[in-house]
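Cross-posted from the bioinformatics board.
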Amino acid sequence: MNTPMTANSDALPALTKKDFDAGVDVRWCPGCGDYAILAAVQKTMPSLGVPREKIVFVSGIGCSSRFPYYMNTYGFHTIHGRAPAIATGLKSYRPDLHVWVVTGDGDGLSIGGNHLMHAMRRNVDIKIMLFNNKIYGLTKGQYSPTSDVGTRTKSTPVGSIDTPFKPLSLAIGAGATFVARVGDTDAKLLPLILQAAHAHKGTAFIEILQNCPVFNDGAFDAVMDKKAKGDRQLQLEHGKPMLFAGGTRGVAWVRGKLDVVDVGEGKAAMADILVHDAHDPDPTVAFALAQWEHPAKPVPMGILRAVERPTYDGALRAQLREATDKGPADLQALVTGNDTWMVA
Amino acid sequence: MSQKPVHELDAVVIRFAGDSGDGMQVTGDRFTSESAHFGNDIRTLPDFPAEIRAPAGTLAGVSSFQLHFAHLPVFTPGDATDVLVAMNPAALKANLSGLKPHGVIIANTGQFGDRNLEKAGYATNPLADGSLSAFQVFPVDISRLTETAVEGTGLNTRAVDRCKNFFALGLCLWMYSRPLEHTLAWIDSKFGKTPDVAEANRRALKAGYFYGETAEAFPVRYSVRAAALPAGLYRNISGNKALAYGFITAAHKLGVELFLGSYPITPASDILHELSAHKRFGVITMQAEDELAAVTAAIGASFGGALALTTTSGPGIALKSEAIALATMTELPLVVVDVQRGGPSTGLPTKTEQADLLQALFGRNSESPVPVIAASTPADCFEAAFEASRVAMQYMTPVMLLSDGYVANGSEPWRVPDVAAIPEVKLDYVPQGSVFKPYARDPHTLARPRVRIGTPGLEHRIGGLEKEHVTGNISYDPKNHERMVRLRHAKIAGIARELPKTELAGGDSGDVLLLGWGSTRGAIHGAGIRLREMGRKVSTTHLRWLNPLPSDLAEVFARFHMVVVPELNLGQLAFVLRGKTLRDVRSICKVQGQPFREQEIIDKVLELMADINVSPFVVDVLEGARALTHASLA
Ligand code: SF4
């Protein structure tokens, strides 16, 4: 009855980055990490092979949530924290659409934490980009649920006292089937992650480390620094040994714990280095990696986890189909019921 | 077996009362169904505790079901009961005050032991101490008689005990000359999977029936003739079920699928249950993680083109307010059902109230007008659901539908509508290739254009930020904001053009206009009839839409000396009407978690009418005298 399919979906004209530019003034602060992310998304979209009209960007509230206005697709800028729930309703009703959610650390992990968690638990086929800048930008600089302990802001003048969330741990704990991390300026990795997220059937959760030059400048400099990142990032690739620092260091089990070891003669052997298995149904290694932080450990980047599980929207449609396959539904019979009497 | 004499009655109010585990709701439902089949007009009032299994034998644990069945039209479950079936002392104590003088008490003596008497707070056994001499008491050891009847079915003691409600039902069916066939058939279909339970219930039912026939304690039986209802096919229907059917029908006629986002809450959950069972009709139900997700998922589906629905009670509305305002701002269709209950906060979850009216009208930030419609009876819920859906889709707006615990759980005979005769509602969609402005307006409804998401070339963005008129671009322009606020307001106010002229029962003018909304309809209408029978110039009318109000209201008010609004709150509609019409609208208020009785309204109206005859001078004198008395006492 609904879910109209348009006839010309198969004859795709070749789209370019420009086709995805809504052509309005972008209003983020100069130098904001959001610009790089927007550029990467606009650049990647044509490669997905999805007609523009089948794409919807849904966001909540915050700097990052202005994102849909800049994409020349269907878009919905909603209310604080609710984007995953709105996206869940939309995708459940319209499985033909490709639904992307843009959220931030305040929007997604604080006021909307419950919806984010449940979207991942349900494994709705939506793609969630969480821009993590460890601060509230739009409300002018309060600490966020990912701010480091001791972060001084207007609302925490002598330093924040609460332990921050580790977004990837939260995602894995909530049962997310696709979990990845990438930096805002990583123009090489970001498109790859977006493409993989698109290809994944189910909720894809991508934490994007995003610099907010106004309120929390340089929060990820240590990790994203061009020269140092080889030593400080653990670039994950499925099927490849987990090595960093030019292959001189790696990840291995040490006395029952996941740890960093030096690789080479008289040190750990290559055979001891773990091979990254993003498809491992057991989340133990992924969860352990998700706990790693700079400076104690290298920061894992790339796809930590990509496993298969039935999607919520898919299962929902299957139940509907099963019910409707039994033959045409008789509305009159429903309304009449089976306990009636005649009044003459 | 000699036939006992049968006495004809016009109407009977019967109340089944027992422990919440005693199956009183089932007993009531079955008796209702039998009476409906028989052709009586009926109204019911289920009344049960919030606890699933409240402490057995206590007053707090009493569950009851009141049924009014009659040969003449009835509008309420009845002011006072003719017959009280009390399965234990607590049930007797909790319900005795509602019994008419000389009313009948059928008491299960098997439960009137010392422990139960003590739990109910009786020092002596009321069945034996003469305290019930004003009533006709029929002591029956229902517990033991049930045990004997089901002996040999192999059920354990607990299961046997659970059959005793069928004994009580059988006895009452005999008493009112009702056949057993329908209930026997119902037992078969309900307990088909557990033949031993089915057999035990059948035996208990028949035992109760034959007990009435043979026991000398019952010298007569009664009958209540069929009512003269309009001809047609009837069924019995509860409010929550009628809402569900109304929404499914509306989606069908609107040519879209129904999406329900809901979070379990009393007394609205049955709508979620009902709709979840109808996937065949393309109904999608999502039990969300919370009230916020329930409404926002619905808004997401609405953006995708659904007839989007969310169902809840007052506390849930409080949580959904921000999202409803988003639907107002983005001008997306949404139906929000509030099955009201006693409040504030958790309040009285299973009891009825009408105190969410102001929340429905105004409970959002800023100027967020929302059409508000109220269902007035269980069967009326069908039409209210249909209307709410139609207006939401045609005007591109959230619509609030108010029901309450009384309408939701109560039931009445419903003439089954001919679904094919309900006209389809055509919705226009922006065609592909046309010039499209997201916030252009339909000149008639002022609705913004409807787009099927997924249509090439119509890509656009909407959101909660203020929109520029026509283009829908974000706009902070002061003049534009005022224009948009006024447009959103005008769009909702314009729905009044569709509303029919206000209809009155009684004269076109007179002393008192009794005006109500929602579930008080029956009591107000019944009170109006009786007041007119007493020679009073009282007319009644009932509002279906609370926003917008019918445009002829002030003019109708002008034809009466006094406008009186009975409400199950502290005067919320009266407050609104005073503001809108500048009339000194009077209130009759009740907030006890219970519906109005006709008599309560009649008494209050007579009291208020006495005031009409008091001249202002006399009032001044009286006020002065009172002031003096207060002063001298101080
Ligand atoms: S406040 Fe920070 S996050 Fe927000 S737009 Fe400015 S730089 Fe970007």
